[in-house]
Amino acid sequence: MTQRWPDGDTLSDPATRDRVVRAAQAGDAIALSDLLDAITPYVRRLCGPIALADAADAAQEALIVVMRRIGSLREPAALYGWVRVIAVREAVRVARGSSRAVPAELPELPAPDDPALAADVADVLDRLSPEHRAVLVLRDVDGLDETEAGAVLGVPAGTVRSRLFRARRTFRRAWLGERSTR
User: Fold this and answer.
1) Whole-number pLDDT of residue 101
2) What pLDDT sits at residue 90?
3) In this structure, are residues 128 and 91 in contact, taking their beta carbons and an 8 Å threshold?
4) What is the CATH number of domain 9-100?
5) Could you give the C-alpha distances from 30 to 8, 61, 84, 168, in angstroms and in order?
6) Locate the RNA polymerase sigma factor 70 region 4 type domain: which residues (predicted)?
7) Which of 10, 29, 51, 71 has the most CB atoms within 10 Å of its CB?
8) CATH ID of 102-182, from 1.10.10.10, 3.30.70.420, 1.10.10.60, 2.60.40.10
């Protein structure tokens, strides 16, 4: 998989990353804290569009899994791929467990530069299943190809393609349907 480092990440230097990961695996609490601090923005960015209103809970659950399982990471260079898998799976799990109602629709169409547009997009995303939100995030936000996204989600590339097709179609229909009622 192609490694994509989050902007401003203190662990982007391979030597530093290896040292911090190995120290955390050896039980160094300060190294573990540094590791969690470095990956938290990345985990939040992944969990946000998938778990929506429950993103903070999903990110917290993902960080707990990372903390508990850091010893199982074989190669420090694979840190972000390993974290990505955990974050996406936790976000989908938390989103599935959520039983909140669909937010009310916005009364008028916002301008392209209006911050309300982001809320409108979030409203349409909220109507997608967690699996569809996850595949959209991995492909359209994180830039993974079907094979990489499939590895993260634990499904074949063909399943990623079909979920992506359905997710985009559902998003488009909800988006356009919402526009026609305004």
Assistant:
1) 39
2) 94
3) no
4) 1.10.1740.10
5) 20, 20, 22, 43
6) 121-169
7) 51
8) 1.10.10.10
